[in-house]
Amino acid sequence: MDCKEVIKMIPDFLNHKLNSRELRDFLDHIEECKECKEELSIQFLVQEGMARLEEGNTFDLQKEFDWMMEDARRRMKIREVLHFLVYGVEVLAIITIITIIVLIIVL
Ligand SMILES: [Zn+2]
Fold this sequence. Notes:
Mean pLDDT: 91
Bound molecules: zinc ion
Distance between the termini: 55 Å
Structural class: mainly alpha
Oligomer: single chain
Number of helices: 4
C-alpha cells in the first residue's frame, strides 16, 4: 500500500469504516511512515478538535490520538482472533461431518 492510498483511507479509518484487512495494512503503513502518521494526526486533530470545541470540553488531543491508535490495534487483534476462532470452528464442523459420513458408510 502506498502513501496515496493510505491518505485516501484516513477519513474511513477515523470513522471506523475499514475492514480487517484494510485496517491492518493501514496501521502497518502508518507505523512505518512518518508523513502518513503526521497527516493522520492532523486530520484526527481537526475532526476531534472541532467536535470537542462544540461540546466545550477540555481535552488532550495528543493523548487521545495515542489512545485511538492503540485502540485501533487492539480492535484489529480481537478481530483477527475472532476470525481464527470462526475458522477453527468451521474446520472442526467439517471434520465432524466427514467422520459421521465415514462412520455411516463403514457401519
Ligand atoms: Zn506513507
